[in-house]
Amino acid sequence: MKRIFATLQTDVRLQQRNGFYYAAIFVLGIYALALTQLPLPGARLAWLLPAMAVNNLLITSFYFAGGMVLLERSDGTIAAQVVTPLRTREYVASKGLTLALLGTCYNSIIAALISGPRVALALVPGLFAAALLYALFGLVAVARYHSLNTYLLPSLLYVSVLAAPMLPYTLGWDHWLFYLHPIQAPFTLMRAAIEPVPGWQQLVSLILTLLAGVLTFRLACRSLERVRSAA
């Protein structure tokens, strides 16, 4: 337990030192300024919140996770961690949790600006789940790359697949096959905060979200284990 808390603190400092929080604050300022200029009331924009969250999390969770691993590879931190008691699952959990909290706070503030604190609070479970999954997928995606230049182009394929739930939602499509996508279930939990969603559908989404979290965490651990072994 002491190791995971120490790793969480280290990751927070790493994120702060590399400007992740400053970038988030800067973009939030732009959002706040833009929203004050829109003629539409927040209630008219609320339906966009899940899609906006997915778009934002591709940066604050997916790419930030990849960026942290690449930074630690370049400065030799991962190689140094191999000789410490830190386990791979603790390393992955710390990255996932800190970035999930960042993504949740970031998008909750945007939701509060658009639709008020009540909607923002209702979005938190789906936001946190989606942010965590995106961070874990970011760790999986970056594991085989050693530099930003080699990672950026292949990462676009991951981004295209991970952003897929936005398309059927914006077009008003709905089908059970969409739930084969790991982000669809937390996306549905976010939808439930702004529109009526049947209780059984929310329950199924919660179960699928937990299942996706467990499987993605194990996949991220396997991917990062290879990275640490090769360091």
TrEMBL record:
Annotated TM spans: 20-40, 46-71, 92-114, 120-143, 155-179, 199-221
The keyword Transferase is annotated on this UniProt entry: no
Name of the protein: ABC-2 type transporter domain-containing protein
UniProt entry tagged with the keyword Transcription regulation: no
UniProt-listed InterPro entries: FLQE3_permease
Keywords: Membrane, Transmembrane, Transmembrane helix
